[in-house]
Structure formats: structure tokens, C-alpha cells
Design brief:
This protein is of the alpha/beta class. The chain has a single domain, classed as Rossmann fold (3-Layer(aba) Sandwich). 45% of the residues lie in helices and 14% in strands. The protein has a seven-stranded parallel β-sheet, with helices on both faces. The longest helix has 21 residues, at 156-176. The chain is globular, with a radius of gyration of 18 Å. The chain binds nicotinamide-adenine-dinucleotide. The site of nicotinamide-adenine-dinucleotide (NAD) has 29 residues, from helix 1, helix 4 and helix 7.
Length: 267
């Protein structure tokens, strides 16, 4: 018996050229899904799509700036042209917005975070939900963050978009439940990626600031996020909608880092 979780599914993965999005695209393909890997960087999207094809899966790469409506519309059109339908949407793209309080953060940086992390998800959903409905139903998985559950100094834009994404997704689930479409967020915590290393400088600093070591004693891997995304996208999660799953190693269960440490590390 073929036990692949996502046989016959067609997934659009926005931010699929990134580390978490790429791991999700790879895992979905290994579970039998065809994947449209979408990213603002065509090079990164193509690298992931190629890795999937080399492993025997089906994937295409599509260049998409999720803050541009025409790009989002084009992505779903291209995915349907390639694979005949869309059943699954993952939104994993995000900007690396700078730090700053409301006085020092530029309005342009604030708008960019909202445009990409929040409106980008709205636009990808706007141009994909009709296709998922036409396929008879499916699943949306939006990647939020533990920073949507608690704040970090200087990160009002990023934290707000991630908190907003959780509520947006709850309403999406309510609106589309009658169409047999489930929608959930995943809130990754301290995941070991180049993005987090860039942000916090060293792994030691990253671990200290992000409260790693207090519960499971380690950072998470992109594969550990991808396995929860595969679960949510599959029929194994058939009664799970309108909720958030924290993949954070207990970070939000026990946030014991001293604020002084956080301030020091976030600067
Ligand atoms: N790494 C972590 O520890 C962590 C923790 C919590 C949440 N997250 C979230 O997980 C997701 C993936 O993060 P990651 O760590 O893999 O980072 P990443 O930088 O590797 O991935 C983000 C991807 O989004 C793409 N992107 C940026 N702007 C875009 C745009 N306008 N249109 C389309 N694509 C765009 C980038 O090119 C990149 O490939 C993000 O939503 C991030 O907020 C990450």
C-alpha cells in the first residue's frame, strides 16, 4: 500500500526558495505532491525545484514578488497550467526587515514588512482560493512565528505581521470551511537557519536571545517545521482548521530569557 501523505496534491509554496519554504517544498514532493516553488529569487526557487526533480519528484520554479498582485495571479495560473489544479498553498516568504522603534524604523521598512509578510499572504490566498475550491477543497498553511505570540524589542513590524497572520488565517478558515478548505498557521520558534544566524550574529548569541536550551535544549531544524506542514496539508489533519501549531521546542511555554539579555542581543 502506498502510504505517501500527499499523493495527487498540487502545492504552491511561496517563499519556496528559502530555507523553511524549501524544506516544505522538498518534503511535500517526497510525500507525492507536485510543487510550484515560488520565490522572489528565481535562482533560489529553481535550485529547490531542481533538487525535487533530481529526487524523482515533480516541480516547477516561478518568480513571484508576493507584494505584487499580478505576480500572485500569474503564479497560480502557471501552477494550474503545469499541473492541472491547485490543492495546497503554503506562504513562507518574509522580508528581513530592520530593527527600530517607531521613531527610528523608517516608514518604508514598516510598509515593506506589511506588504510582504501580510498583504503578500492575502494576495497569494486571493488568487489561489478559487483554484483550490475548483479542485474540490484543500489546505492553506501560513508560516507565522513565535514572535507573533510574544514581542521582541525593535521588531514591531515583524511581530505585528506574524500576529496578524494568525488572525487572518482563523478568518480564512471560517470563510472557506464550507468549501472544504482548511487553513492553519505554524509558528516556528528558534529554527537554525542562515536567516537567524545573520540576524543574531553568532549561534551562541542566537541561542541566548531566543531562549534556546531552556526546554528541549536545542534549536529546531527546517525539517521539523516541514514535517508539521506535511501533517497539516494531509488528511491526517482532516479536523484541524483555524488554529496555530507552535513548532518552537517549548520556547513560548517557558520564555525565561532576561529582558536585558534580549535587548543586548537584539541590538
Ligand atoms: N528561521 C527561523 O528561525 C524562523 C522562525 C520563525 C518564523 N520564521 C518564518 O519562516 C519563514 C521562512 O523563513 P526562513 O528562515 O526560511 O527565511 P529565508 O530568508 O530562508 O526564506 C524567506 C524566503 O522568502 C523570499 N522572499 C522574500 N521576499 C519575498 C517576496 N516579496 N516575494 C516572494 N518571496 C520573497 C526570500 O527570497 C526567501 O527565499 C518566514 O515567514 C519567517 O518569518 C522563521
Amino acid at each position: 500500500m502506498d502510504r505517501k501523505l500527499l499523493n495527487g496534491r498540487v502545492a504552491v509554496v511561496a517563499g519556496g526558495g528559502g530555507e523553511i519554504g524549501g524544506a516544505i517544498a522538498m518534503r511535500f514532493a517526497s510525500e507525492g505532491a507536485s510543487v510550484a516553488v515560488c520565490d522572489i529569487s528565481l535562482e533560489k526557487a529553481e535550485a529547490v525545484a531542481q533538487a525535487i526533480r533530481q529526487a524523482g519528484g515533480a516541480a516547477i520554479a516561478v518568480q513571484v514578488d508576493v507584494s505584487k498582485e499580478a505576480d500572485c495571479e500569474n503564479a497560480s495560473r502557471v501552477a494550474v497550467e503545469a499541473f492541472g489544479k491547485i490543492t495546497t498553498l503554503v506562504n513562507a516568504s518574509a522580508t528581513a526587515s530592520p530593527d527600530g522603534n517607531v521613531e527610528t524604523l523608517s516608514t518604508a521598512a514598516w510598509r515593506e514588512a506589511i506588504d510582504v509578510n501580510f498583504t503578500g499572504v492575502f494576495l497569494m490566498c486571493k488568487h489561489t482560493m478559487g483554484h483550490i475550491r475548483a479542485a474540490g477543497g484543500g489546505v492553506v498553511v501560513n508560516i507565522a512565528s513565535s514572535h507573533g505570540h510574544f514581542g521582541l524589542p525593535g521588531r514591531s513590524a515583524y511581530c505585528s505581521t506574524k500576529a496578524g497572520l494568525m488572525h487572518f488565517t482563523r478568518v480564512l478558515a471560517i470563510d472557506y470551511g464550507p468549501h472544504n478548505i482548511r487553513a492553519n498557521t505554524i509558528s516556528p520558534g528558534p529554527i537554525d537557519t542562515a536567516r537567524s544566524l545573520r540576524r543574531f550574529g553568532t549561534r551562541e548569541n542566537s541561542n541566548r536571545v531566543r531562549g534556546v536550551g531552556q526546554v528541549l535544549g536545542r534549536t529546531g531544524t527546517v525539517e521539523e517545521v516541514a514535517s508539521v506542514a506535511a501533517f497539516l496539508a494531509s488528511d491526517e489533519a482532516s479536523f484541524v482548521t483555524g488554529t496555530d501549531i507552535r513548532v518552537d521546542g517549548g520556547q513560548t511555554a517557558f520564555k525565561g530569557t532576561a529582558l536585558a539579555d534580549i535587548h543586548q542581543g537584539a541590538l
